[in-house]
Amino acid sequence: MVAAGPAFLIILMAYRAASLNWRWTGSLAALSGLALGAIGTEFMCPITGYAHLFN
Question: Per residue in 36-46, is it b (16+ CB within 10 Å) or e — as a string?
Answer without folding.
Answer: bbeeeeeeeee
